[in-house]
Amino acid sequence: MSKKGGRKKTAAAGAGDELSRFLQPHLQTISDTLQLMADAAPSGLERTEWSEVVQLGDLVYRQATVAGMVWSGDLPDVETLKENIVAYFNVLQGFLLACHGSTVGAGPTLHKYISSFAKSVVDSSISLFKLAVSAYESGKPDRKTIIPPVTGTVWEACLALKKVPTTNCTAIGRAMTQICLCLKDILREMKELPIGDSGDITAEKSSNGDVDISSDKDESSSDLEVDDEFSEEEIAIAKMITAVTSDSLVVVKEAIRFITSLLKSSGNQRDASEDKVESMENLLSCCREIAEQINDLGASVYTQETSEMKSAIKGLYNGINGMRKEIGDLGGSPENIFAAFGGFEKSLGALEEKIDEDVVNEMENLTICRS
């Protein structure tokens, strides 16, 4: 290597160290600001509209575009690169403060959505500049190929801001939809058990006959042969647990419809239902509890452990009772959801009765061995 080439490499390394040191306090400032997102903003503050946050996200998007071109092209002098860092992180700081301001009045679920999407923008931005400075410092010739993909990650994070729910009601409804999808997965797994034809147990079934759960039926599931490892009693219990799972899906689906009706009745006005946030959050917690107990109940099909099944059934009854209370507190008496509760409790009662019956039969069949 020539002395001239060596001097250039040394100079580039020195400039890279300088840029790395210059970047650190900006990263720390953003990290400190992100900590504000750990809690929702105090209710006494003026709330920032989410549309303003999206606009600032667009500014971050444009700054990322500029940064991608600057750092992956023919690099300018160090001072110009520093100016790019300052400009970017000033916009990012403003974006984060606006995100925090938008959490005024946000319940736990909405706050979690906002924080998660904001963090995605921050994390991708930090990755972009760490990579850019590192590539400059090491003199990597492939900057033009490695920086654009990371810039694209920032773009995606900024564009995703348009999908963030803007009200507590919408956020809770979306979270319930995720629970619904989890229950559908559990039901699908239950239908794939080698216990023979599940008969008329389908995800479309409901207590009032008109709730469409849009299940993904496996055409071959009804043709599965019975597994010899399952006794007739165990197969009967497995089918009843499948029915309970199906009815739990109907219950959560009706809860989603109830939340949607609350949103419509408030005229899509954010403040119209803010006094009901706690009850809506509690309703969501009940749905989560039901999903967890259904998962445990599904797992007990293999163990056939009576105590596990009874514990899950008790938890499901508690979940239904909790949902009834919260719906009452929300001032609703929707016929469909109460009918779904009735159908669910009927399935639970039948399962509970079957379990008790099997326990009695086992006790009667016990023989006492005398020594």
Automatic annotation (TrEMBL):
Keywords for this protein: Cell cycle, Cytoplasm, Nucleus
- Record lineage: Eukaryota, Viridiplantae, Streptophyta, Embryophyta, Tracheophyta
Region annotated Disordered sits at 198-226
Q: Does the keyword Iron apply?
A: no
Q: Which family does it belong to?
A: Belongs to the CCNDBP1 family.
Name of protein: Uncharacterized protein
Residue limits of the Cyclin-D1-binding protein 1-like N-terminal domain? 52-194
Native organism is Brachypodium distachyon
Report the residue ranges that make up the Cyclin-D1-binding protein 1-like C-terminal domain in this protein.
217-325
Which cellular component terms (GO) are annotated to the entry?
cytoplasm; nucleus
The answer to whether keyword Cytoplasm applies is yes
| UniProt subcellular location | Cytoplasm; Nucleus
User: Which Pfam families does the record cross-reference, listed alphabetically?
Assistant: GCIP_C (PF20936), GCIP_N (PF13324)
The superkingdom listed in its UniProt entry is: Eukaryota
